[in-house]
Amino acid sequence: MRWIARPNKCRRLSVRSRRILSTSIASTAAHRMGHRSNLQIRRGAGGGCDSANQAHSLRSLAGNYLDLGLLGIKVPEVEDPEVVQEAINAFYYPPIGRRSWGGEVGFGKSDIEDRVEYSRWWNKTGILAIKIESIKAVLNIRDIIDPLLTFMDDGANDLNFSLETTPHLELKTYEDCRAFVDKEFADVDIRVK
Fold first, then answer.
1. In what order do the strands lie in the sheet with 151-154?
2. Model's pTM, two decimal places?
3. H helices present in 34-74, as ranges
4. Spatial separation of the C-alpha atoms in residues 138 and 31, rounded to whole Å
């Protein structure tokens, strides 16, 4: 299942084959407490998948890896709106977020030299996504969704683990969770796939 919050931000991009396009940053409770987390980096056409372990906050991870040339990030295991706000602050430049400038190798910086023009371009172009992978996230979905997210999707297997370990009276299956989210967004202008 994939929920699209800002479909206009997803567009075809032409990039060099070595350009890093997206990443997934862990935001689990252990991560927020400073334990090591795994960061997966996917490269563009022809690239492999690298992995790096970091012990930093979501804000510093997002900003640092975006400054290396990522076009977008996906934050998994989001359960609370505070994590979404932390991701927004780390991802977007002022006045929307609090991301610092961080160097000259960011995605698209070689094409746009003016700092203010680039930050405006980034705030319209960068891809920020979250992943819904627990019953708590499903139940908090109305509080989690934010118009500054490009999209959100789910992790069916992790959601099933959550359903098995945290039983709920009404939401017993993945399909129940999907129906719940669809119903929550029935009156909201958002595409649900």
1. 49-54, 37-43, 20-25, 72-75, 127-132, 151-154, 2-4, 191-192
2. 0.70
3. 58-67
4. 21
**pLDDT value at residue 127:** 92
Q: What are phi and psi for residue 65, nearest 5 degrees?
A: -75, -35
Residues 170-191 have pLDDT tens digits of: 999 999 999 999 898 887 665 5
The CA distance from 191 to 160, in Å, is: 23
Alpha carbons 26 and 40: distance in angstroms, whole number: 9
Cis peptide before 95 (omega within 30 of 0): yes
Separation of alpha carbons 73 and 36, rounded Å: 18
- Across the range 58-78, mean pLDDT stands at 81
pLDDT score recorded for residue 98: 93
For the record, the structure tokens of 177 come out as 């969770």
Residue 60: the pLDDT is 65
Antiparallel, parallel or unpaired: β 72-75 and 127-132: parallel
Q: Which single residue is written with the structure tokens 């929550």? A: 184
